[in-house]
Amino acid sequence: MAYLQLQGIEKFFGEHRAIKGVDLTIEKGEFIVFVGPSGCGKSTLLRLIAGLEQIDGGQLVLDGRDITHAPSSKRDLAMVFQSYALYPHMSVFENMSFALKLAKEDPAVIREKVERAAKILNLTQYLERTPKALSGGQRQRVAIGRAIVRAPKVFLFDEPLSNLDAALRGQTRVEIAKLHRDLGATTIYVTHDQVEAMTLADRIVVLRDGLIEQVGTPLELYDRPANQFVAQFIGSPQMNVVEGRHLPQVAGVPAGGFVGLRPEDVTLQPAAQAGAGGLPGTVELVESLGAETLIYVTVDSGAQLVSRQPVRSGLHNGDRVGVFVEAANAHRFDAQGRAARV
Ligand code: ATP
């Protein structure tokens, strides 16, 4: 049975319909990630679930209970914000125990719960410090700890790592993944970070303009996007999508339709070695990322493609190349951008 169920959820800001009837079923223990372009409604949907915004239409059911209009404090959810939202004058211990104290829990039980959460999050040695004496990553762990001690039915995360630098973001992401593995808590996580979405999610929900475009496991979305929008939203650098006429070697493209190719399915050879098989093109830009190289190329027909190669290519700006595509891995879209199955 569904643990958290969204049925026809609607939200208006004045005349603006920000969430347009969202249906979604989440199972107990799932890690769900909301992604989508800026302004698509990810945070609003999370805030509606949290009870921080009023739901204007539809129904929200958690563990068999209709919580559509329940106050936030009565929903048994815990939210972790981008900004941490810690109390600056309280110690880490007091921050983490605050909700339990309000709920009039026994002090001995509070201490035990906070100490257990602190241990999980490697915060034991910081319990007496105030937030200002902590790094950004440690503060975010305190914010997560504050959510854990409440043992809520659902954890809600709103871009929790976006204030951290790249290294710490990676580290904290791994900690969140481990935490989910160990606690198995139902989690909804908003991000615009591809890597967070792909690595953390059991299922990703792709939103666009207040509606769900597709829901699926990371690899389902990567391998079988329902449409061009999802295809280009999931994966970095984004999937190449060009008019079918540019890639005659890909069969089965609907009239007026498009071909999509992941950058790893485009390979390049120096023109002198390419022979007759490749499409002639010119290298526009070579980006070396160390372990891999991204090469931007313009095919003579005008199509622009990016190729991802796991090696140092030896190619340079302006080089003439032959472009080879892995037609077996090509995606086909009709003129409206919907995936066409062959
Ligand atoms: P981002 O990735 O930029 O945070 P988002 O996908 O989280 O974007 P939301 O913040 O949910 O998007 O906003 C969805 C839409 O609702 C946007 O058009 C936004 O301008 C609008 N919106 C959000 N909050 C309010 C508000 N309090 N009042 C009016 N409009 C709002």
From TrEMBL:
CDD domains: ABC_MalK_N. Pfam families: ABC_tran, TOBE_2. InterPro entries: AAA+_ATPase (IPR003593), ABC_transporter-like_ATP-bd (IPR003439), ABC_transporter-like_CS (IPR017871), ABC_transpr_MalK-like (IPR015855), ABC_transpr_MalK/UgpC-like (IPR047641), Mo/tungstate-bd_C_term_dom (IPR008995), NA-bd_OB-fold (IPR012340), P-loop_NTPase (IPR027417). Residues 4-234 form the ABC transporter domain. Coiled coil: none annotated. One of its GO terms (molecular function) is ABC-type maltose transporter activity. This is ABC transporter-like protein. It comes from Sphaerotilus natans subsp. natans DSM 6575.
